[in-house]
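Lab notebook, design round three. We kept the backbone fixed and only want residue identities now. Task for the bench partner: fill in a sequence for the structure below.
Input structure tokens:
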């Protein structure tokens, strides 16, 4: 009964970490840090006239360029979608004001087992996980076409 059916297993992360980068005195603080894909970086202007502009991002990641501001409390955020090293600078001050972060792509769920069987011609899906980091719930979807 299960031939021709494909089950798609989804997990959903909750509570992405929000990283705050203070922008002032011609520096980003912290200047270098590690994040996980799904985390959010927020640049908070403390003082001066600055912005945050990507200078190098991993293949597949979106570059960014925040507006320049002199307003303390100005905020710009970016959600990390791809593992790798991201380098950025204040485009107003160039190489005098640079920083970076590195994103790991480790999955929040590591499966130990996954089994599909039938009972009374209905699919029964069972799984166990080895780890569940920041996981809120699971969602299963069925496809008759493989898409």
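Proposed sequence:
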């Amino acid at each position: 009964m299960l031939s021709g059916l494909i089950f798609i297993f989804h997990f959903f992360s909750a509570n992405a970490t929000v990283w705050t980068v203070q922008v002032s005195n011609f520096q980003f603080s912290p200047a270098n840090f590690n994040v996980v894909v799904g985390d959010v970086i927020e640049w908070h202007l403390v003082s001066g006239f600055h912005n945050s502009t990507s200078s190098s991002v991993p293949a597949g990641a979106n570059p960014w360029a925040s507006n320049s501001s002199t307003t303390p409390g100005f905020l710009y955020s970016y959600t990390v979608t791809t593992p790798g090293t991201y380098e950025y600078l204040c485009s107003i001050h160039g190489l005098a004001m640079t920083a970076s972060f590195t994103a790991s792509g480790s999955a929040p769920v590591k499966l130990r087992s996954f089994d599909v069987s039938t009972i009374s011609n209905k699919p029964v899906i069972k799984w166990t996980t080895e780890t569940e980091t920041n996981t809120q719930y699971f969602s299963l979807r069925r496809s008759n076409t493989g898409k």
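Keep this in mind before ordering anything: The two ends are 18 Å apart (CA to CA).
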